[in-house]
Amino acid sequence: MRALTFSEYGPTSVLEIADVPAPHAGPGQIRVAVRASGVAPADCSHRSGRLRGIMPVPLPHVLGVDAAGVVDEVGAGVTGVRPGDAVFGIVDLAVLGGGNAEYAVLATWAPKPDALSWEQAGGAAANVETAARTLDLLKVTAGTTLLIEGAAGGVGTVAVQLAVARGATVIGTAGAHNHEFVAGLGAIPTTYGPGLGDRVSALAPDGVDAVLDCAGSGSLPDLVDLAGSPDRVVTIADLDAAKYGVHLSASAGPGGDPQAVEGLAEAAALAEQGLFTVPLAATFPLEDAAEAHRLSETGHARGKIVLTL
Q1: Which contiguous run of DSSP H or E holds residue 134?
Q2: In this structure, are strands 66-74 and 86-91 parallel, antiparallel, or unpaired?
Q3: How many whole angstroms from its chain centre is CA 20?
Q4: Disulfide engineering: 140 pairs with which of 36, 93, 131, 135, CB 3.0-4.6 Å?
Q5: Is the pLDDT of residue 81 over 80?
């Protein structure tokens, strides 16, 4: 099969579309013929070598942690799904890749909602899992006031919608040009950067209950001050988190996690009710994956970047 791979760490020039052996569904897994799959900042970090000290991957490596497609193999012990079903999901996180290919093995999945296009579903699962997991860690429920740093990005846009659906009041930071976009998702927009504390205090005079950092821009000291305690802050992007006593939530662990399945089902149900969507920053054919990585590395993509097959 064709797959997006890299055999050495480096810039986007190390990416190649290679012919690799197709994977097969093992126990508890399904295989899909991929229609679309996501590109995440973590993919760029793996490719560049930024994460090799803490999350090494075997080389050559097939990139991509989520995908949407049509089931064509069902592993032993799997029920409730059969060949021909349309699904979206996440690869086995113990493998850390494989979604950007013609075929992908998923360990966590849910039926693809009709309300989401293939491109939206292909880029949804990993962000949904991350957003749902971190909102759970922060105990975001009805009545919570939540600050999301980086609300216009892939995870941020999902976290805003899930938090609002749970009954939270959400303040989301973004560039001024993205304020209308963030407000359309249900958040109160404000600008990131110097003076954030004063701006958030004006919007939430009683303070914020929790903070989710999706940007990793070095703002953790300010975010901890706003939350009042480091245990009320979770980051998914700042590798210096431990320095400030903040929890870095990088992944849920091996695939098939029941909480991840619940998160995908939650998002799918909301999508069918018209309460959840997946904003797309851009879509590229698999052959233009290097351009997709370059866009991701700007840090200014509004929504999810997706590869199509």
Answers
A1: helix 125-137
A2: antiparallel
A3: 26
A4: 135
A5: yes
List the structure tokens of 4.
């997006």
Q: What percentage of the chain's residues is helix, strand, coil (to nearest 5)?
A: 35, 25, 40
Evaluate if residue 199 carries a pLDDT over 80: yes
Please work out, in degrees rounded to the nearest 5, the angle formed at the alpha carbon of residue 28 by the alpha carbons of 23 and 31.
35
Quick one: pLDDT at residue 92? 81
pLDDT, tens digit (0-9, with 9 covering 90-100), for 222-263: 999 999 999 999 999 998 999 999 999 976 554 556 677 889
Return the sign of the alpha-carbon dihedral for residues 295, 296, 299, 304: positive
What's 243's DSSP letter? Answer: G
pLDDT of residue 252: 53
Yes or no: say if 307 and 286 are a contact pair by the CB < 8 Å rule.
Answer: yes
Per the DSSP assignment, residues forming a β-bridge with 2 are: 19
15 CB-contact burial (10 Å; exposed 0-12 / middle 13-18 / buried 19+): buried
b/e per residue 156-171 (b: at least 16 CB within 10 A): bbbbbbbbbbbebbbb
14 exposure class (CB count in 10 Å sphere: 0-12, 13-18, 19+): middle
| Residue range 11-31, pLDDT digits in tens | 999 999 999 999 999 999 999
Model confidence pLDDT, tens digit, residues 106-149: 999 999 999 999 999 999 999 999 999 999 999 999 999 999 99
Residue 237: closest CA among 303, 306, 299:
299
Element spanning 120, H or E:
helix 118-122
CA distances from 93 to 165, 199, 214, 257 (A): 27, 38, 20, 10
